[in-house]
Amino acid sequence: MSIHRPKRAAARRTDSPTGKGSSASSAPKPPKWKDVVADKPDGAFAAYAQGETFEKDALLAHSKFGKGIVVEVDGNKLHVLFEEGVRKLLHGTTS
User: Fold this and answer.
1) Are strands 66-74 and 77-82 parallel, antiparallel or unpaired?
2) What angle do CA 32, 34, 40 make, to 5 degrees?
3) Is 67 within 8 Å of 61 (Cβ atoms)?
4) CB 3.0 to 4.6 Å from 72: which of 26, 46, 60, 79, for a disulfide?
5) What pLDDT score does 17 carry?
6) What is the C-alpha to C-alpha distance for residues 66 and 11, in angstroms, rounded to an integer?
7) What is the pLDDT of residues 23-67, one digit of tens each?
8) Contact, 54 vs 91, CB < 8 A?
9) Residue 64's closest CA among 40, 41, 75, 80?
10) Spatial distance between the Cα atoms of 76 and 10, rounded to a whole number of angstroms
11) Are 67 and 37 in contact (CB under 8 A)?
12) Tally of CA atoms within 13 A in the half-sphere of 41 that contains its CB
């Protein structure tokens, strides 16, 4: 025999300073690819290689994903904005 228990009401969170609720991600949105990358000359892009290191805002050319810009560096991982979206790539490591 089962016991019927009513559902408890969830507590509402209003501890954010803006009062608009908590945000799932506090990171700003990456810029649009066409605004940042599309008008740059081909010579401005460095060829991507896993052994090379890249800084934030560096322009790179990937053999599969095309032209991109580094939007975040997290240790040995890069978050690169390509035309199709953001991809995570390794850098500064040997294969």
Assistant:
1) antiparallel
2) 125
3) yes
4) 79
5) 56
6) 47
7) 455 556 767 888 888 788 989 999 999 999 999 999 999 999 999
8) yes
9) 80
10) 40
11) yes
12) 2
